[in-house]
Structures are given as structure tokens and as C-alpha cells.
Amino acid sequence: MTSPQESPDALRDKVAVVTGAAGGLGRAISRRLHAAGARLALVDRDEAGLADAAAEFGDDAATFAVDLTDDARTEALPGEVRDRLGTLDILVNNAGVRQIASILDLTPDEWRHTLDVDLTAPFVLSRAAIPGMIEQGRGKIVNIASITGELAFADRSAYCVAKAGIIMLTKTITLEFAARGIWCNAIGPGVVETPMTSEYFRSGPMRESIERNAPMKRWAQPEEIAGPVAFLCGPESDYVNGTTLFVDGGWNSAKTY
Ligand SMILES: NC(=O)c1ccc[n+]([C@@H]2O[C@H](COP(=O)([O-])OP(=O)(O)OC[C@H]3O[C@@H](n4cnc5c(N)ncnc54)[C@H](O)[C@@H]3O)[C@@H](O)[C@H]2O)c1
């Protein structure tokens, strides 16, 4: 049986904003939403990567070169998306950075930068997108969190704190706006093979840890995260709100790494 998400019509007439669209997960999410019928507003600070990502979607995608740490620029984005694409129905807060350093080596500026990109930007963008979504009667927000929002990993303090924060932001947006037609859910990936994590897979402790501790003994490919994101963007998840769906091969259940 074909589910609505698998049909090319599930997101027909919808416009989806995907941040971090030039990155590994952003590209897979964009592809999946487009396959379900959505037109795309692709956002990233990496202009060349953005152009490359947009090339496969032709007239169905518009690009927005934005540094999401620029609050004013980020706040203006939903209006620009509506001007260029006519509407804004879905927001996927996917852009992220992650620094690996001990708390003793991480500077306050580095800490702030991670929180700015991974937590404050989704807040600023959601805050700017929600009023228009309420006005049109319906809007879905999907935040890309992480298993690190629930499990503490050494040398990733700012990242873990930001991801724990976005899980809570997801719940608070739901509490405030669910009755006005807003859905806000999060996806909590385990380790996914993308440019962010490419160093893990050659060798070293993270690779060994995944192979030893992850219940499925492997990491994910971006497409395995993109499907669940599409589910949370589409009509089949209409009674799912405020939740974080961990897409981690069972790792979060094992609570070991
Ligand atoms: N790869 C994993 O294992 C994994 C696991 C859990 C969660 N995640 C999350 O998934 C999301 C995507 O990660 P990825 O693995 O695709 O990483 P990636 O590095 O391939 O992509 C991240 C993208 O975000 C963009 N970006 C970074 N800072 C930005 C800024 N200030 N303004 C605009 N764009 C900015 C980058 O240019 C890049 O294109 C992130 O939120 C990450 O934390 C990834």
C-alpha cells in the first residue's frame, strides 16, 4: 500500500523552508519533501553549496543565502519566502554546527556560536514564521534535534545543551500554538553519515563505539532521517505534536555510547 507521504501529492501546493539545505541532511530532506510535491525555499550560508543543491529542483526551488546568526536577516526570511513562493507552510530547522572540545577548551564565543546557530536561529525563524501560518490556518515546524539532546556526550557541551534546548523549544511552541493550527515536532537522529560527521567513519573511537553500542551496530544514511521528517511535515502526523521522534536505530533506548 502507498502511504500519503509516498505519493507525489502529500505535500502538493505546500512550500517548505529547509535551513542548512546545502548540507548532508538538508539535501536529503529537500529531496524527500520535493518528491512528496512540495516547492522548496532552500536556506544556507554556503552560497555555492546552495546553488548546487537547488540545481536538481529547477523552478520548484528558490535559494536564500542567509547567515542564520544574523537575527534581523533571519527574521525577515519568512516574508521573503512568501514574496517569492507565495506561501510558507512548512519550516524545517535543520542548519547546525557542532564543535568538539572539552569545556575547559571551549571559549564563551564558541559556546555562544553553537547556541546561536543550533537553538536561537530556530527560535527566531519559528517566531517569524508562526503568525503567517496562523493566519493561513495551518503550519508545520520540524526541528532537527539529536540524540545528544537526551544523552550527554563528552566534549560536545554546547551542542548537547543546544539540542536539549530545541527539544524543549519544540514542546513550548506546541503548547502555545497547537490550538491555532501549528504543529511543532522534532527529529532526534543518532549518527548520520554527512559532512558534519565524516571524520567518524574512517576509524577512531566514535566508529568503534557505534559498532559496539548502537543496537543496530551501524550509523544512518541521510535518507533514513528524511523519510521521518517528511512524515512530520505531512498529513499523516496530524495528531503528533510537541514530540521528538528519535531516529537512532534504538540507540536512545540503550542509553550507552
Ligand atoms: N550528521 C549527524 O550525525 C547528525 C546527528 C544528529 C543531528 N544532526 C543535525 O542535523 C542537522 C544537519 O546536519 P548535517 O549532518 O547535515 O551537517 P552538515 O554540516 O552537512 O550541514 C549543516 C549545514 O548548516 C549550514 N549552516 C551552518 N551554520 C549556518 C549558519 N550560521 N547560517 C546558515 N547555514 C548554516 C552549513 O553551511 C551546512 O550546509 C544539524 O542540525 C545537526 O546538528 C546531525
Q: How would you characterize the overall build of this protein?
A:
Residues 14-150 form the Ketoreductase domain. This is Gluconate 5-dehydrogenase. The protein has eight helices and seven strands. It has 257 residues and is an alpha/beta fold. Helix 5 (157-177) links the parallel strand 5 and strand 6 (182-189). Helix 4 (108-136) runs parallel beside helix 5. The longest helix is centred in the middle third of the chain and has 29 residues, at 108-136. The termini are far apart. 45% of the residues are buried. Bound molecules: nicotinamide-adenine-dinucleotide (NAD). Residues 20, 22-26, 44-46, 49, 66-69, 94-98, 117, 144, 146, 189, 191-192, 194-197 line the site of nicotinamide-adenine-dinucleotide (NAD).
Write a concise synopsis of the structure shown:
Belongs to the short-chain dehydrogenases/reductases (SDR) family. The protein has 257 residues and is an alpha/beta fold.
User: Helix coverage percent of residues?
Assistant: 40-55%
Summarize the main sheet.
7 strands, parallel
Order of helices and strands: EHEHEHEHEHEHHEH
In DSSP terms, counting alpha (H) and pi (I) runs of 4 or more, how many helices?
Answer: 8
> Rg, please?
17 Å
Strand order of the largest sheet: 3-2-1-4-5-6-7
Uncertain runs are: 1-5
Q: CATH H level: which superfamily? A: NAD(P)-binding Rossmann-like Domain
Please tell me the CATH architecture by its name: 3-Layer(aba) Sandwich
The CATH class assignment is: Alpha Beta
Subunit organisation of the chains: single chain
Heteromolecules bound: nicotinamide-adenine-dinucleotide
What is the CATH topology assignment?
Rossmann fold
How many discrete domains?
A: 1
Kindly name the structural category: alpha/beta
